[in-house]
Records
---
Amino acid sequence: MDKRQITRNRPVKACVICFNGKRKCTREKPVCSRCDRLGFKCVYLAKLKTSPRNSFSSADSEELKDSTLHFLDENRRNEENNNFRIITSRSGELSVLVPKSLFPFYDLASIVSYLIKKKTDDDSETCIFDFSQLVTSRLGIEDLRSKMPDENLGNYLITHFMDSIFPLVPIIDEMNLIIKWKLFLREPSSFEDLNAMITFFAVFFSSSFSLHLDELYQCRNNEAPNSDSRFLELASEYFECVENIKVLLLTNYNPSIPAISSLAMMYYVASLNCNELAVQVSTLLRYSQMAGLHRKASQLSETPLKEVVYAFVVFLDSIVTCYTGLPTQADLTSNEIYEGTENLPSDPSTLAAIARFRAARLCADIKTKLSGVELLSQDDVEEKRRAFEKAEQEIYLINERLSKLSASFQSDQAWSYNESWLFLRRAGRMLAYLSSNAQGKWKKMSSESIFNNRDLIIQSLLLVNESFLKISCALQQGTKSLWFLRNTYPFEPIVIVLSHLKRYPNACVNFMGLKETVYYTKSSKIDYYSGDLRVVLVEKCFQVLYEIECLWPPKVQNTFKEVSALKSKLITKKAR
């Protein structure tokens, strides 16, 4: 039986736009309401001359024009449609015809996001990597081997990685990396370890992008810095290789620890606090649970690598929550990894990273509660406050251990150890918001009382102080980890302090009344116990922020300029 005889054939009463988009049409003439609202040209099909199904013949083809059967029959006969895919966004308003041959292993959401992003983003933006770009070439293992750098360039990139990236992202086995690299150099034509190759390319990508940021920093005073960096081109090539190896390893179905750690490292190094990477980080969390990284396999005296990798992926999810406000995707109820102060690693870099991970987790948890629609009770706030005090004590103990290890482990990355306090102060600032929200104070209190929230002002000043010391110490030591340094931009606490300064210009705010259990990094050039700290800390923080401004994307730079203008206006008025 001919398929056309069993296909429902009825006249198409909807307009062409609504029919092709599979949307409900109001059938209003001459323009339906949807086309009128969207500004589309509304065209209706010609009236169908119906005929019995069993009398279908080639002579009746003209009568079936513009019918449902006509559209289905045209699609069957058009062989090109087998090579294309129609993609519609969630709103149903964006439909794109994408050739399957160019994007063989991408899901629909990624392609739509890429096409929208390409139309809206600034093409001149080179300080963050575009992870939404689509890789159109398919590489085999021979092609991947040919993409590996030569020995001199490879050694240079690995050395830069070990000095400037690995101490801050200790989620790979550095000894195994060196051994595999030597094996590849010995027999490059027979090397087929894809897990090692994805780690190689992730390391080369991270080092290349870090060196690209170094170039931007070196030419920051030029009016027209050179954006065509060879290191940026190398990073794009290595990203293409990583995406192809993901397919060869079947990462979507059987993710490996090298693949997870490689992707996590690339996302952290080449983005700005994982902005616009919420989907990628959520996918990493799914990979981690598929690989069983959240399960504790053995009781070891040292923290195994898989636990550090899982903690780092949860850390990426935490910073996505902290900086975007999206709810956290990590399900900590299924986490079997112990989070106490026992059995901690002896390596300072890993120890500092664990402290940073825990502080960020607390910050994300409070941010998620703060973003909720339900009004929290006082008991909920007290629970979060106890969790905050517990985390503060644990991080203090970890930092005490770090200070003891500093004598035996000389590191140029000691300035990064206070990063955990940065996240903890963010959590403290949001806890002040949460407390006021739970008590309904934002609606019941007067604006005078809101601006005079001492806990909020103190936590904001502590955060500004930690940000200033982190950046200034790193720049004084001539760090090459600018990719990590640029993640600090405390605009919101600065605005809170400036707002308090505007309302209370004659107030004297300092750290004299703080409890002894409140730890913060101190500078020998600042008196924290007398006088007004607001202007001093804001001015010093702005001095160091100006140094790394060139490493931010344009939208962050514009925000910084607006905050800077507000600061200049208020502090100049106070000086008068």
Note: Confidence is low (pLDDT under 50) at residues 48-66, 75-123, 441-452.
---
Amino acid sequence: MTSTSSVLSDRYARDLRAPLFSQLGKRIGQRWRRLITLLLFDIFALLISWQVTASFGEPFYLLNDNKDSLLAIATIIAFQVSLLASQELYQAGDKRRDYINIAKTLTIAHLLLLSVVFFFQDSRNILHQSLILSGVLSVTLVCSFRYSIDIAIDNLREQGFLRYPIYLISKLEDKNSAIKLLDSDRRYDFAGWVDITTINERDSVLQDIYRSKVSDVLIYSWEGITSQPLFYIKLKNAGVNIHVLPTALQVVEQKIKLRFLGSIPTFELSSYLTIGGDFLIKRCFDFIFAIALILLLIPAYLLIALLIAIDSSGSIFYKQNRMGLHGKTFQIWKFRTMKTDADRSQKSVEFSHQWKDGALFQTKNDPRITRIGKFLRRYSLDELPQLFNVVCGEMSLVGPRPVPNSDVEKFADRHFIRYQVLPGMTGLWQVSRSNTDDYEIDKVVNLDVKYMENWSLGLDIQILLKTIAVVLGRKGAY
């Protein structure tokens, strides 16, 4: 097996995307602190704008009594804040400092409110001049408050506070210049360095980065890393933002932000926004749904077990070692669909039937399959015991399908990306293929990566529903 697979065999915590919950909590805490701070200051600025408007003697009441007026103002402020959020003005980086966009968004909010007042309110209840004055004050105060926050943060960072630890990956000759670059940007503290010429031989590099609890990694020479997509996915799964100098960069994702480190532009490849939340939602859904299905399918389990026992001698279940999350081996469970000597006779069948590039062996009319096994495979009923793998946390309902370890040994390095998430009972490839013998590993991995990048609970449900339709409509699995 390749050196990459040995990296994968390191046992990290069981998680969909991020192996370190402590780092995850830190990043989530940073995000929420920023969001709450900006929200409180924006709301305070908007409240002041209305209070100042009222102090000039302008009628302030949208409705007849004071309680309704306060409710209306609260609704207006909520609307203003929602528009700001829709323009991503609470995100990290330069977006929250886009004062032109802030002014434009608040102006649009007041124009919409002015239109509502013009068409639906009696002019005696509120003067249009009040809204104009409030709009000017809102833009001025919100921008001023945010600018004050930036000045305060810059002063704190000058004193060494509110900085993000960043890990450096570069050539030895570039180390000093890279550290100077980081020193010129007060947002970051240098947390560690590794020589990029040794990174491909050192399995411990990723563990060093994890232990450093860094939020960002600066890669000074991206072209020096072999298996770039795999390295990129592993860092993203750890909740790490990746900064890459825009030289010889092979783009590995479409959503790339241009960010500056000091005066030098870099590409930022961001981590997933809700890493641990994704995992918890997915795991809870998997556990509850799997338990419910097991209880519902008890009669089917008993009937299938009886038919297998009648059809051929041997055990009811078949178990086999498969590679799971981060390369950890687990035993996958199935209903037995082959004769008891199937593993011993596999080698001769491989060469007498369909064998593609020495991997992922499947064949039609396999003589080892029993009569009841053909029926079970046709409707994928042999996979039902894997619900217990799901309950135990070794598999997910949806994810890349695990293949036998003997086939994994034939994988190229880039194919190991699929082992950065829990393997699934079904996946995007299973519901996308047009027939059962068109398995091309590169296409499969591309679909696996697409699933990892676009995961949502809705996508899982969509794949599960599509799986039912595919199983009932296809001619059969081998």
Note: Residues 29-158 form one domain.
